[in-house]
Amino acid sequence: MFSQILEGIKIALSAMRSNKLRSGLTSLGVVIGITFVILMGWFLQGLDDALEMAFASLGTDVLYVDKFDWSGKKSWRETMNRPDITLKQCEELMERLKSAEVTSIIARKWQTTVKSGNQSYKGIAVCGTNSVYSGIALGVIKEGRFFSPVEDLYSSNVAIIGYEVAKNFFGEDEPCLGKTIKIRGTTFTIIGKVEKQASMFAPPFIDNQIYMPLKSFLGLFGAGKNLSIAVKAGGEANLDNTRMETVGIMRQIRNLPPEAEENFAINETEAFRDNVKTLRLSVWAIGIGMTTLSFIVGIIGIMNIMFVSVTERTKEIGIRKALGARRSSILFQFLVEASSLCLLGALIAFVFCSVVMFGVTRMDWATFLSPYIPPQLLLIATVVSIAVGVLSGMIPAMRASKLDPVEALRYE
Amino acid sequence: MEAPIIDIQSISKIYTMGEEKVHAVKDISVQIHRNEYVAIMGPSGSGKSTLMNILGCLDTPTSGTYTLNGTLVSDMVDDELAEIRNKEIGFIFQTFNLLPRYSTLKNVELPLVYAGISNAARREKAEKALRNVGLGDRMGHKPNELSGGQRQRVAIARALVNDPSILLADEPTGNLDTKTGDDVMRMFEELWEKGNTIIVVTHEPDIAAHAHRVLRVRDGLIESDTINEHRVSIPKKHEEAVEAEPAL
Ligand SMILES: Nc1ncnc2c1ncn2[C@@H]1O[C@H](COP(=O)(O)OP(=O)(O)O)[C@@H](O)[C@H]1O
Ligand SMILES: [Mg+2]
Predict the structure, then answer these.
(1) Which structural domain, as residue segments, surrounds residue B115?
(2) Residue B197 covered by a domain
(3) Which residues have CB under 6 Å of ligand 1?
(4) Confidence band (pLDDT; 50, 70, 90) for A239?
(5) Taking CB atoms and an 8 Å limit, are A323 and B79 in contact across chains?
(6) pLDDT for position B242
(7) Nearest-5° angle of CA A327, CA B75, CA B39?
(8) Contact flag B158-A323 (C-beta cutoff 8 Å)
(9) What is the count of structural domains for chain A?
């Protein structure tokens, strides 16, 4: 059996070698089909991974009580007219909320200018929050630590900086702990650095951020800010419960009558999932369509070349039959030949895909994709190519196996 | 007397081409015993090849029975016939019918591949068969690197490699010059002496003269079936002389 396969592959290879151009052209459909399968699988895999990473960094069991709606379902004008969420409202909500595991206030100042030594950068987001925030949605602290409850209480001038900030001021892998930065004239000591968090679904400012104790933030930028609150439910199972309680308390705090619409938003990572679902679906639809089309072209091509091969080798088939080849042996021989052609197409596609992946992952938007073909995709592509070979080789191989030996021997 | 190895009873073969029917073999009954050396003679179109194909189980008769080695083969289907051909029949064709892409050794191994014999055993048997026909030093050569006589000897090695009960040759010297044709006929003679059963189709009286029984066929019927009283046996040639035959 095995030696028959080897034999078949050898025959196919020598037949292909003797007609490189024709073999190449006919397996083009398969090459393109396999390329689509791999690229599509690769992209979707990357998408899923990036999504999971983004979810993990935002917390899958975290609700964000905010003035603005992430899902974009409300009009901009409507959300702009909503009242700000004040510090007092935040404190009341945190005080009364019983079902949540932890809560933390988040205050952000956009487009801040930050200095260090004689360097100055604009456009940095400063985030004032509580010490518990590190357990809710912060990325991994790569160096140093987050600020402590004591530092939070005494509004210490300490800061934790994001990956971009560290890179811009001090260089990518340079030590930055203990160094200082200046914001609005106040000097902050850097006590921690967050690992790179950028991904397709993370907010664009995620790495260009500086975290500091909420009180320090309020002292710096004033207390009249719009705030938001991160509410960690403590497990996705508790999410519904916590959401209900949060909404109820917020409505009470804002004295909303039962018929009034909410003038605040409860944001969740779930909101992303819907967006991604649409993206996934379109990638699938396009991918499946193109794959099917190229496989149809591929199957017709391979079938055609196999018919030619059978005709050209009628005499050979006659000889083999005279020597005792059964129908199944002849059938098998031509199926192996067709599959080898497709496998060759798959190999070309592997090389092509590797080049494409290498190129694409060097682009900024695509850093969430892995630069290698995932092994399970290699396996799938190999199996698919063999299946295509068997499918397209079946009819020609059947014809070959049923040839009458006397007729076949007479063929010149 | 020992049961015949080949026993055909009133077989006929009719080819239908559209409206027209060609009665290639009309009503032939023949028995051939082990270690006979039979020549089938007749003019072109008389039905020799058709008869040969039926004897070789490449084709089945339209009517009549064929018993080969005690097995009724005239009713067999494709795959069963393939197995019979593989085990019982060794073919030698006028045009050699070697696979051009395969080496000599591979060509000789082929019947063993279809017999399901393991790699190592296959190789050993094929090498031995090639040495027996004096081509031990040509195993890696492709057919187009060999002379006509050498090619036919490869074909003989291939026909013998699976120890068939009969050797069927259809115009085996038709594509060879007289001298190399004689070499092949000498080989047949040796095989016959070793106990093989040989059937040769030919229209050349010179070739038929080596057989010890001659079947004359005309218009799909056996015209005569005679013992060759004046057999011409070929004088043995020295081994080296065979080896010295120049390559093409
Ligand atoms: N496959 C076939 N289809 C139709 N007619 C055939 C076929 N094979 C042989 N014949 C006819 O049968 C007759 C005998 O042919 P064949 O056995 O080849 O004769 P020979 O070998 O003696 O020359 C011829 O008339 C030939 O034309
Ligand atoms: Mg003939």
Answers:
(1) 32-53+77-244
(2) yes
(3) B 15, 17, 22, 24, 42, 44-50
(4) confident
(5) no
(6) 46
(7) 90
(8) yes
(9) 2
Same domain, A285 and A339: yes
Residues A280 and A242 reside in one and the same domain: no
B153 falls within a domain: yes
On whether the pTM is more than 0.90, the answer is no
CB-based contact (8 Å) between A315 and chain B?
A: yes
Examine the fold and report which residue of A221, A251, A268 is the final residue of a domain before the chain moves on: A268
Question: Which sign, positive or negative, has the C-alpha torsion A203, A205, A211, A216?
Answer: negative
Q: Are residues A281 and A251 in the same domain?
A: no
| Domain presence at residue B116 | yes
Of B56, B79, B113, which has the smallest distance from its Cβ to A327's Cβ? B79
Note the pLDDT tens digit of each residue in A284-338: 888 888 888 888 988 988 898 899 889 989 999 999 999 999 999 999 989 988 8
User: Which residue from B79, B101, B110 is facing A323, i.e. has the nearest CB?
Assistant: B110
Domain that holds residue A317: 2-54+273-410
| B27 within domain boundaries | no
Residue A33: is its pLDDT beyond 60?
yes
Q: Which residues contact B157 (CB under 8 A, 6 or more apart)?
A: B108, B126, B129, B130, B132, B133, B135
Q: Are residues A34 and A89 in the same domain?
A: no
User: How confident is the model over B101-107, as a mean pLDDT?
Assistant: 93
Could you give the ipTM of this predicted complex? 0.92
Q: Which amino acid is at A318?
A: G
* B79–A326 C-beta distance less than 8 A: yes
Task: Please say whether the beta carbons of A3 and A329 come within 8 A.
Answer: no
Interface of A with B in 232-291 (CB under 8 A): none
Asked whether the beta carbons of B188 and B210 are under 8 A apart, the reply is yes
Give the residue, A282 or B125, on which the prediction is more confident: B125
Closest Cα in chain A, distance from residue B157 (Å): 13
> Are A97 and A179 part of one and the same domain?
yes
Boundary (domain end) residue, out of A268, A303, A331: A268
Instruction: Tell me if chain B has a CB within 8 Å of the CB of A375.
Output: no
In this structure, which residue's CA is closest to atom 20 in ligand 1? B45
**CA dihedral in degrees (A293, A295, A299, A304; nearest 10)?**
60
Mean pLDDT of chain A: 87
Residues in chain A within 8 Å Cβ distance of B59: 404-406
CATH number at residue B98: 3.40.50.300
Check whether residue A245 and residue A353 sit in a common domain.
no
User: A174: alpha, beta or left, given left = phi > 0 and alpha = psi -120 to 50?
Assistant: beta
What CA–CA distance (Å, rounded) separates A263 from B219? 107
* Residues B171-199, mean pLDDT to the nearest whole number: 91
**Res A18 pLDDT > 80:** no
A143 vs B: CB within 8 A: no
Please name which ligand lies nearest the alpha carbon of A410: 1
pLDDT digits (tens, 9 = 90+) for B54-90: 999 999 999 999 999 999 999 999 999 999 999 999 9
Query: What tokens does A79 get?
Result: 């959300």
Q: Give A72-88 pLDDT, tens digit per residue.
A: 777 778 888 889 999 99
* Domain co-membership, A65 together with A212: yes
Nearest-5° Cα angle at B194, B190 to B196? 95
